[in-house]
Amino acid sequence: MYVVATPIGNLGDITLRALETLKGADVIACEDTRVTGNMARRLDIQTPLTPYHEHNAEAARPKLIERMKNGGAVALVSDAGTPLVSDPGYKLVRAVVEEGLKVVPLPGASAALAALVVAGLPSDRFLFCGFPPQKTKARRDWLAEVAGIGATLVIYEGPSRLAASLADMAEVLGAGREAAVCRELTKLYEETRRGTLADLAARYAAQAAPKGEVVVVVGPPAPAEAATEEDLDAMLRAALDRGESVRDAAAAVAAATGLKKRAVYARALELAKG
């Protein structure tokens, strides 16, 4: 099986090796035959397409593996970019490996990597986070889990939720943390806006939701200075005054300060009772 990266917008980003492989495969397994079919027509790829996505994977996977066992070559693609990156294809790759069949990667376009290199933020250590939860509380909890990681964060987000998500990032990750919003990468209206999370949150809150694919890149946290008891109490009181539960307030403050969760939770309980 060939895992083939395809363009995320500009068809000129297809590699010669990807073209050769897609044209020579027995079948192309894709998320949406309409999306991949449009690309195939424009690139003169006549290989048959078969759907493979999270809704039909259990039924489609054995058929693809059987085809490979019989000597067939399967090319796996996503709608755009590199398969398995925020994509369910890993279950197919895992199953192919367990059957003792060969998996061949064909690298190429990736929205996560394209955003990382254009953001102007540290790229020597980064964490791909995928899509955050859609609901506010779950999203803030999710952000709190990665807030203290000493790496640049790469986050996918839907355009309709971008403003709310940026506001939560500024709240949980830190208003002054450097970030970039990368939109429609490699496409006609490609755009990258850079600034602090507070600046970006305010900018997108003041305008209509943007269109297209969005990647948010957030720089690593600054080296933390030891929080004093007064700092800790002020941060906890501010979180509690916003209506956050003791548990949520403690989790967010612990992530922001690097202090142990148990100690912060105990102090939050004292303040809440007082």
Give an overview of the whole structure:
With 274 residues, the chain is an alpha/beta fold. Helices cover 43% and strands 16% of the residues. The chain contains eleven helices and ten strands. It has helices spanning 16-24, 33-42, 57-69, 90-98, 111-118, 136-146, 162-173, 197-205, 229-241, 246-257, 261-273; strands spanning 2-4, 27-30, 49-51, 74-76, 104-106, 126-130, 152-157, 178-183, 191-196, 214-218. The strands form two sheets. A five-stranded parallel β-sheet has the order 3-2-4-1-5, sandwiched between helices. α2 (33-42) links the parallel β2 (27-30) and β3 (49-51). α6 (136-146) runs parallel beside α10, α7 packs antiparallel against α8 and α10 packs across α11 (261-273). The longest helix has 13 residues, at 57-69. The protein is elongated, with a radius of gyration of 22 Å. The mean pLDDT is 94.
